[in-house]
Structures
1.
Amino acid sequence: MTSRPTLLALTTAATLALAASLVAALGVPSAAGARVALVLGAWGVFSALVAYLFLPGFDPIPGRMTRHAPGSSTVALTIDDGPHPESTPGILDALERSRVRATFFLVGSAVERWPELARRIVAAGHAIGNHTQRHRLLPFRTTGQLADEIAACQRALAPLAPTGIRWFRPPHGFKPIGLHRELRRHHLRLVSWQGALRDTDAPGVPALVARAEKLAQPGRILLLHDNPNCRGQTAAAIPRIVERYRQLGLEFALLG
Ligand SMILES: [Zn+2]
């Protein structure tokens, strides 16, 4: 039987929380305070597990994740889901015009399909990271599938980065059980973000610039997408976002 450890952990935690609620409702243990502590404790464990799995920036164990850009007046631009012929060229042109280097979290299967575009990203001086081989939701995969999603993307990216790949971001930021063990195996570091512009909604360039302005703070890791769903708006917004951030005294840096 193939193991799906994240689903197993979620099911176990939910079952224990329901069981604790049931026995407390039946009056066990006899002291009311102990029953409240039992129910709150059991649901607290379940909630912490859900938060860890599905909140990209949350990890109760400190030090395992890069959550901030380096420097006291810098932000880091990260661009996920590429390469793609409909979106990558425009984004690369916008970054070049704005003299900004970004970190592209690339999907291995897209790199294999459009290797020229991936090479163009690296040649322009941008950093690249692992965004899995097929962009699947990792919490619902088996242990073997999780290992393959990361390892296959590493193989796809290897020819582009002779000094190795350092950064990893899971699709949607979801962190399955066993993720850190796989990341250690490949010497990868998890990268989160605190600035999601939701550009895949294609809300219009003015809305994207306004969203970015609300997030203008030193240390932010901004998340944009190299994805056709953005309908060219991300590339159009980048120069305006960069200009506004520079007016506010912020500069763009690669991840530390
Ligand atoms: Zn993604």
Note: The pocket of zinc ion is lined by residues 80-81, 131, 135, 171 (CB under 6 Å).
2.
Amino acid sequence: MPELPEVESLRRYLVREGMIGRTFEWVGIEDKPESANGTGTLAGARLVVDQSVKSIERRGKQLAVVLDEFVLGFHMGMTGQVHILDSDDTPARFIRAVFNLTDDFRIALVDPRRWAKIQHFESLEHAFSGLGPDALDPDFTSKQFATNLDGRTAQIKPLLLNQAIIAGVGNIYADEALHRVEISPARRVNTISKKNLGSLFDAIRISLEHSLDFILKHPDERGRPYIVDAYGDRMQLHRKPGSFCPRCEIPLVTLKFGGRTAYYCGNCQK
Ligand SMILES: [Zn+2]
């Protein structure tokens, strides 16, 4: 699932390839139910013709293309990717929307599972509403992270997934960061010392930055961010049944939080 590093690598790819400054000329959206997530999830895409791209921003997992008069939000859902198409590209499978911009610049939303959303927002503020500070925002400090958790008593794992507390941490990176600092996902946040919360904040950053760096260094043959399950190469913790704690070399255990499964070591994570 695209998380912060995947979405940031996509943002940089679109900027690097020259999307900023171009104008949308034509939009095509698949003539099918737009999403397993309900209808209208690509509706924002229909409005962009004659709008020029001012900038491409991101907070957490939300990508925001800032246009002359409004903002087009892209949320990648479970399997969404954006590809820049070459003029000789034949139609690929799972293309849900195609955008033609000036100078033959074309992009496509590719999304096998149809959970991605393209939405119209009045402003960047609206596009990012409900999101807390971005996990990699240099102005976001461990002190503010601790303040955002102050007074809470819930277990740490679901709090890390709360995008209003820290935007951009998903299931995979939450497990990775908790393993790095030897904190159990089930630990109540009010029992974690300020010092350890600081270490957890640092571990989140290290995990996200390491993964972003890996993605940037391993594009596909056309220079696109290659968003596949390469977690084994960029994670210390291998989140799958039967895998082992790299420190203790004993099997990881799992715990469900809502619908999400946490993988952790019952020995070293307290
Ligand atoms: Zn362990």
Note: The two ends are 27 Å apart (CA to CA).
